[in-house]
Amino acid sequence: MKSNIIKITKYLLFSIFIFGIFSCGSSESSVEEQSIERNSKVAPNLQSSTNNSSGKLDNIFRMNYSDPPTFDPHLVTDTTSAGIIVELFSGLVTLDENLDIVPDLAESWVVSDDKSEYTFTLRKGLKFSNGDDLKASDFKWSIERAAHPDTGSYNAEVYL
Fold first, then answer.
1. What's the CA gap between 120 and 108, in Å, rounded?
2. Domains in the chain, please, with CATH?
3. Mind listing the pLDDT tens digit for each residue in 85-119?
């Protein structure tokens, strides 16, 4: 019996982890128009700038075999998009090298005795890439958006 409870708890926490990865977004969107300037300059020799004194590469190169259909974490159904999104978003929890659930954006969490309520404490000073504060309401918005029928999320069941 206890083994089943542990498995269920791990599944729920893993689901929350997946939700966090695919959900950290703001309900407000701001799009800045940018003009692309064509540059006829030849790229500099990258050999000298890619290696540091330890001989390790400073840059990461990732090649996709197809264009990602979406960067919307709630609508992902393909591996190309999922592979990129997993690198872009963090969750409340994550898995360590032993596949144990450990804090990520959450500092800690408490599970109610009946296992129906999870209360997360967020780390202090969390920010979106644009500098806005990351708040609990952002996670709430993401869960509600994923679960809303108008979103059409194939992953909604993971969040609920």
1. 6
2. 2-25+60-159 (3.90.76.10)
3. 888 888 899 889 999 999 999 999 999 999 999 99
